[in-house]
Amino acid sequence: MTDLPTIFILPGLGDSGPDHWQSVLERSDRRCVRIAQDEWDAPRCGAWVARLDEAIARSETPVVLVGHSSACALVAHWTASASREQIARVHGALLVAPSDPDGPNYPAGPTGFGPVPLSRLPFPSIVVASDDDPYVTAARATEYAEAWGSEFVMLAGAGHINVASGFGPWPLGRDLLERLRAVAGR
Which of 122, 152, 154, 173 has its CA 20 to 30 Å from the CA of residue 131? Predict the structure, then answer.
């Protein structure tokens, strides 16, 4: 049996504050590692992709990615450019509240996140979206999930699935992650 996978926490723009569900998860699970970026507010996607690639190369165990918002686009961009060897190290991805970098509400400053690659992800994935997220329409989130070959979970009235919409501890998120982690530990 392989080692349990390491969980890479991939926050979106602005990082995930201490009460965000990603931070709560990180504090409660020693297998979690936050991938810190140099620029959180006006990043270049290419710099985020390079940082993720470096972290995956250094990992001594398989990896499961847990992305929020712009980090979902990060995962799609990384997958489109990574080597087969690097991709083989990733055993799953939980992609929550994907934002639309080409949408009307995406903040100014970040560059290179759009257009989001719409190629099938080469590992199991789950996309979780909300029907009232200001940063992505339900139709666009569905398009991402279908293109990426992801299981899709649509939440009603959950906003951007962050602290502002009431998501600190998030039992459903932990349950979905455990399903992915079980597959990754094969």
Answer: 122
Residue at 170 is within a domain:
yes
DSSP class of residue 172 equals H
Judge whether 162 lies within some domain.
yes
Give me the number of domains the chain comprises.
1
Contacts 24+ apart (CB under 8 A), 146-150: 147/118, 147/119, 147/120, 148/76, 148/95, 148/118, 148/119, 148/120, 148/121, 149/120, 149/121, 149/125, 150/93, 150/95, 150/121, 150/125, 150/126
Q: Is the pLDDT of residue 1 over 70?
A: no
Any domain includes 1 = no
Alpha-carbon span 39 to 182, nearest angstrom:
33
pTM of the shown model: 0.96
Find the CATH number of the domain harbouring 151: 3.40.50.1820
Which H or E element spans position 73? helix 70-81
Q: For 5-26, what is each residue's pLDDT tens digit?
A: 999 999 999 999 999 999 999 9
What percent of the chain lies above the pLDDT cut of 90? 92
Q: What is the mean pLDDT of the chain?
A: 95
* Residue 72 within a domain: yes
